[in-house]
Amino acid sequence: AQTVTQSQPEMSVQEAETVTLSCTYDTSESDYYLFWYKQPPSRQMILVIRQEAYKQQNATENRFSVNFQKAAKSFSLKISDSQLGDAAMYFCAYSGGGGADGLTFGKGTHLIIQP
Amino acid sequence: DTGVSQDPRHKITKRGQNVTFRCDPISEHNRLYWYRQTLGQGPEFLTYFQNEAQLEKSRLLSDRFSAERPKGSFSTLEIQRTEQGDSAMYLCASSLDWGGRLAFFGQGTRLTVV
Description:
The structure holds two protein chains of two kinds.
Chain A: E1 3-5, E2 10-14, E3 19-21, E4 24-26, E5 32-39, E6 46-52, E7 60-61, E8 64-69, E9 74-79, E10 88-96, E11 104-105, E12 109-114
Chain B: E1 5-7, E2 10-13, E3 19-24, E4 31-37, E5 44-50, E6 53-57, E7 65-68, E8 75-79, E9 88-95, E10 104-105, E11 109-113
Parallel strand pairs in B: 2-11
Antiparallel strand pairs in B: 1-3, 3-8, 4-5, 4-9, 5-6, 7-8, 9-10, 9-11
């Protein structure tokens, strides 16, 4: 079974600074997808960024980028120029490529933005 | 269609009662997922539909839980004989089967069993 580990229960960053959230995963599959989701206090899960395992190039979405290290099974999220609206729970998630598996989530990292 | 819709947003029920939740996915999405999220945890996968067929169920989905998607559109999740341990946020998500697993989530139904 796949597992996703987020070792940072909480992170704090000053507004406009850069922060990196860590995620590691365990799988025996070679084809899969990795995601970062954001869950603000309103509780709706919002997709931040997605990475296909077969792509070597790291995904980027505006201020959000990932460092995908397939051999190390590591998938960290970098948030540049942090804004107050970035404050939320951030979940790393895995989806197997071969079947119709649902997402396997980590326990989340609570990101605090200091004004 | 503005996204995945879940109803009700909040439900308080007495232990032993049955409850039913509804999820309306994004209209063209053929995949529909149910997750359960307890406080301080990430969502846990419960079950998955492709069109009207329920293709996968987690071991978390005990016999008291049943889900349906009768016409491949909306889905219902029923919990019979609720227990206090069922208190959680129940999340629904939908996606396209060629969408690279790009799932969109609803706002969830928060269940409190008293």
